[in-house]
Write a structure and sequence with these properties.
This protein is mainly beta and about 775 residues long. The protein has one domain: Beta Barrel (Maltoporin, Chain A). About 5% of the residues lie in helices and about 55% in strands. It is built from five helices and 48 strands. It has a 22-stranded antiparallel β-barrel. The longest helix has 11 residues. The termini are far apart.
């Protein structure tokens, strides 16, 4: 059971600060070379222009591709280990997909992965917004850098984002022929390979081709079928072209493709409520005839096979295929510049899972979804008043269509739910920064957003089905049930008027389009003061907005149209950027307070997960980040995040579902911390050896608003270690690494329906200790 006593006290804080080595932490940006470590300038584009990280008055963690390689970060969900106050899981509950993500920054995020719900944290690749959380767990191929922006981001980004943004920038083609090739082998028959080649066609036409594949065996055994879950088998490629059409016009075009064909998510049994409706019905039907060797587990409901095995038998499958392209045209007109970003993306994915992880038919599900998106963004930017003012004005349009074909097989019958989705968004945004003096600058931004969400439900019974308990006034007075759509009267079981039988093919709701339109205007104000060339402080007020939508998984007559409203966040942030001790220490920090209103939370009604507007919450906390190079041979990096999140008001729906005012927000550990130490040993003609150790800590966390104890995760630490060798000419590097050195057992997601009619609970654990050996050749 998670201890809910207040974490924040002087003794514990002092202890943690001593463990991490100082009063602040920051993003690592340097790597070992022949000359050792050094603090280098980090260029970011968080404000849509290239500038130093230390000149950017917002809370942003930035990581270069080389740095993430040395820290064994090779997919986006692993950013959790090195980024304060970021929670990133690749296993959204109920999805059955290995590519379905849950991303939270400073306590704001979204657990629902269906196309009727938008993510609260925006994922951008080369300034293009990825609309769906499925597919957001990315393998890094030809990466340049990643920026994690905390807090509302709207006055500079095309698509509005309320919780923060993960901004991924890929590497541009080089002016010289060359490239890199790498391979990695390791635990569970891991076999990764990547190649990237730059091929300049002329001085003005540059190209790059990159490909990568990943294969790795699963790590959760299905005892009764002999299968393994949680394997990796992906293939991806990317073509990029950069064309200098003239001295004033540059064109960048890219095309990417990804395909994954894997077994299902590595979920395992977490619990079963044998008195729950689904479990009770299935156990009563199946237990007398089930295999005698399993009958004791059947009657007791104890189907646990440990954290890396289960007794599920329903087919488990995870497939994902995506193709996308974008064209960015930049035109320098002298007085100002114009940038056009045109992009499209198509995606298909399937996720099949045995939610109860038993041979019983308690609850199984299959998602078969498609999604297409198109976006067009125009940015106008420039300077004025002898470069004292920097400005940007933007126009944005986005549209998507999606289908959610969601099959659910349960002890009370088989259903189809989901439907068709059409969403569009348009926005006008802008931001101006004015340097009042050489030391003082003022920034103001404003955004207007209008979004329309349309949904056509496709929900019906596939088999004869038992509905859920109904009240007397829902019947016809003679023990029957009146369907609210077709007015037919269906009989009830036992004459008690408590459960109705609905024939196969019965629609829950008319197949007609419903739509809602949402609009909002959100401002941003920032004041920054540079006390010395090395130290800057800033104060920011910003608002974020996320529109509402529809709950697509409603399995009850008359309730298919379950809309929910928008949510909003107002954040005040006080931060600093400092480079100290003769540029040997980079120290950045931020303190924030967020008023979070009309939170969109997923709660079960009967057994269907629905989205409700939950009420209001206050979220306060801080991030501290550092890079310290005390000598050219030693590098110490780390991060510390603290969040104190409290509900201030709850909606009636949330109170009725069992959420309490003193509950913790889901996916919001109070403390997140990391510390990495590396030592560079230059052996001259023998090259450079760099041993390093990285430690990461995550505090207690719940995975749902109900704070279900059966799936909660207590605080845990991860230790990774590696020895890296770089050749004297730096064309070859070899890394021998161990991740999760202490073999820590911890959950990365949990899904509890123990208290509902569904009766089950499931969890996903991270892999245990792993080793890997990789080699990269630069040519």
């Amino acid at each position: 059971m998670i201890n809910k006593e207040p974490f924040f006290n002087k003794e514990k804080l002092l202890h943690l600060l001593m463990m991490t080595g100082a009063l602040a932490m920051a993003s690592p940006q340097v790597m070992s070379q022949s000359a050792g470590f050094q603090i280098e300038e980090v260029v970011v584009t968080a404000r849509k222009r290239e500038e130093s990280l230390q000149d950017t008055p917002i809370s942003v963690a930035a990581f270069t591709a080389s740095d993430m390689k040395t820290r064994q970060i090779d997919s986006s969900d692993q950013l959790t280990q090195i980024t304060p106050n970021l929670s990133f899981s690749s296993q959204a509950p109920g999805g059955g997909s290995n590519a379905s993500s849950q991303i939270f920054i400073r306590g704001i995020g979204q657990t629902e992965y269906l196309p009727t719900n938008d993510p609260a944290v925006g994922l951008y690749i080369d300034d293009v917004y990825y609309a769906r959380s499925v597919g957001a767990t990315l393998d890094f191929v030809d990466l340049d850098r990643i920026e994690v922006l905390r807090g509302p981001q709207g006055t500079l980004f095309g698509r509005n984002t309320i919780g923060g943004a993960i901004n991924i920038t890929t590497r541009r083609p080089s002016q010289e022929f060359g490239g890199s090739a790498s391979v990695k082998v390791g635990t569970d028959s891991r076999r990764d390979a990547q190649i990237s080649v730059d091929v300049p066609i002329s001085d003005t036409l540059l190209t790059n081709i990159a490909m990568g594949s990943r294969k790795r065996d699963g790590y959760v055994d299905r005892v009764l079928t002999g299968e393994q879950l949680g394997d990796d088998e992906s293939l991806g490629g990317r073509i990029a072209v950069e064309w200098s059409a003239s001295g004033d016009i540059e064109v960048f075009w890219s095309l990417d493709y990804t395909k994954e064909a894997e077994s299902g998510s590595p979920i395992v049994f977490n619990g079963l409520n044998t008195s729950g409706l689904f479990a009770a019905l299935e156990i009563g039907r199946v237990c007398p005839t089930i295999d005698s060797s399993l009958s004791e587990r059947c009657t007791s409901g104890d189907w646990s096979a440990g954290p890396y095995a289960n007794y599920g038998t329903f087919p488990a499958l995870s497939t994902f295929e995506s193709v996308g392209s974008n064209v960015t045209v930049s035109w320098d007109l002298g007085a100002f510049s114009v940038k056009s970003i045109t992009a499209f993306r198509e995606m298909e994915w399937t996720g099949s899972r045995d939610a109860d992880n038993t041979p019983l038919k308690i609850l199984h599900s299959v998602n078969d979804d498609t999604q297409d998106q198109f976006s067009q963004e125009l940015q106008f930017s420039g300077t004025a008043f002898e470069d004292q003012m920097t400005w940007l004005f933007g126009l944005y349009y986005f549209e998507e269509t999606a289908t959610d074909d969601y099959f659910v097989a349960t002890a009370v019958g088989d259903f189809n739910t989901g439907g068709d989705v059409e969403n569009d968004s348009q926005a006008v945004f802008g931001q101006i920064t004015y340097d009042l003096t050489d030391q003082l600058s003022l920034t103001a931004g404003l955004r207007w957003t209008e979004e329309t969400k349309a949904f056509k439900p496709l929900q019906f019974t596939i088999s004869d089905a038992y509905l859920f308990p109904i009240t007397a006034d829902e019947g016809d007075g003679a023990g029957g049930y009146v369907h609210p759509f077709n007015d037919r009267v269906y009989p009830t079981l036992g004459g008690g008027g408590t459960v109705a039988i609905v024939p196969a093919g019965t629609q829950f709701y008319p197949e007609v389009w419903q739509d809602q339109t949402f609009s909002d205007t959100t401002p941003m104000l920032n004041i920054a003061y540079r006390w010395t060339p090395e130290v800057m402080t800033y104060l920011t007020f910003s608002e974020g907005f996320k529109s509402g939508g529809y709950s697509a998984r409603v399995i009850k007559p008359g309730n298919a149209s379950r809309p929910f409203g928008p949510e909003k966040a107002e954040t005040i942030e006080l931060g600093f950027k400092a480079t100290l001790f003769d540029e040997s220490l980079r120290l950045n920090g931020a303190f924030f307070s967020t008023d979070y209103t009309d939170l969109q939370f997923v709660i079960r009604e009967d057994f269907a997960p629905l989205t409700f507007n939950a009420g209001e919450a206050k979220i306060e906390g801080m991030e501290l980040e550092w890079t310290w190079v005390p000598t050219p041979e030693i590098q110490i990096v780390g991060g510390l995040g603290y969040i104190d999140a409290q509900y201030e008001q709850l909606s009636d729906d949330l109170i009725a579902s069992g959420v309490l005012l003193d509950n913790d927000l889901p996916h919001t550990p109070k403390l997140s911390a990391s510390l990495g130490v590396a030592y560079s040993l230059n052996l001259g003609d023998w090259g450079v050896f760099t041993p390093r150790v990285d430690w990461a800590y995550r505090d207690d966390v719940y995975f749902d608003a109900l704070n279900s104890e059966d799936t909660a995760q207590e605080g845990y630490s991860i230790v990774n270690a590696a020895v890296i060798w770089n050749s004297p000419d730096e064309n070859i590097n070899v890394s021998l690494a161990i991740s999760n050195l202490t073999d820590e057992l911890y959950r990365v997601s949990g899904n509890s329906a123990i208290a509902s009619a569904s009766s089950y609970s499931e969890s996903t654990y991270a892999r245990g200790r792993e080793w890997s050996l990789s080699m990269e050749y630069l040519f």
